[in-house]
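Exam revision sheet. Question 4 asks you to relate a sequence to its structure. Input first:
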Amino acid sequence: MFARLPAICLFLLASSAPCQEGPGEEAASPEALYERSLRRVVEVAQRRLEEASEVFQDHSTFDKAWEVRTRHYLVKTTHSRRMAQEVADGLETMLGHFQTLLDTDWVPPEHFRVFIFLTIQDYNAFGEQFGAEHSSFYGSFYAGQHPEQPVAAVFRGSMLELQMEVTHSAFHQYLEQAKPSARQLPLAFSEGLAAYFALYWAPVYCREQHQHLAESNRFIPLRRLAAANLEQFNNNAHETMMELGCLFTYLRWHRAGTRIEQDAEGKITSEPFSDFIRVVVDGGDSSGLETAKLLNERAAELEKDFREFRFPE
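Answer key, structure tokens:
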């Protein structure tokens, strides 16, 4: 009868405790012995599979969360390995975009950490220990004061929204460590860059948000936007972020005189807005650049053109 068992089962059976009758028990029939042995084989196999596979491990609390490591990121969440992998892979791609815009090859000496919580309560409980670094008006933040300096985020049901918000905070995480001088940047500038990268994930959403701001006449005047403080972001976070992200997208990719220009072979021939960003981030003097003049001396012209612009379908 045992010949009917697969080889792996026979191995497991041989390595498990023998099936013998206990005191006072009658001798079992060959059929009963076979069934009992088969059950034991299945139980041993299942137990060993559970011990070897994370699928059967408890990931319900954050100290036991799923962890996925890519080349530069470690993502933790109690949701699923799949989510952690998707977020980590996306951030690896975005890190390349960070490097390109900032013209640097800097990478973190250790994995950047990203913590994804599943409830706003857990997210806020983690964030409240960091004071001004955390705010529940937005779904993620960079916890620079934490020993591991992670990005913390809350999943609210949409993977696209999660990717956008994690990318926003991951840019702050990268910028602060790759370019320490950038800590002195005006809030609108650093938030504008972070919002710009968040919208990388959703060009259609960028177009829709810009159109909404135009049709509802809810654009913030550019001079007031440039001087925005944390209170303004707290009071009107979404629309402020969207206007900044759309503005940076418009200047880098669409407006003549600031956008990226390429030759017939796709080689970049000029990128005035990108050059302006690099000078400002590195703490240089940008006053002589045409982009700086546009943002200051010609702000009214820029504001009019930006409000009337329509992002392509």
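Marking note for examiners. The beta strands are 66-69, 73-77, 112-117, 140-142, 151-154, 261-262, 268-270.
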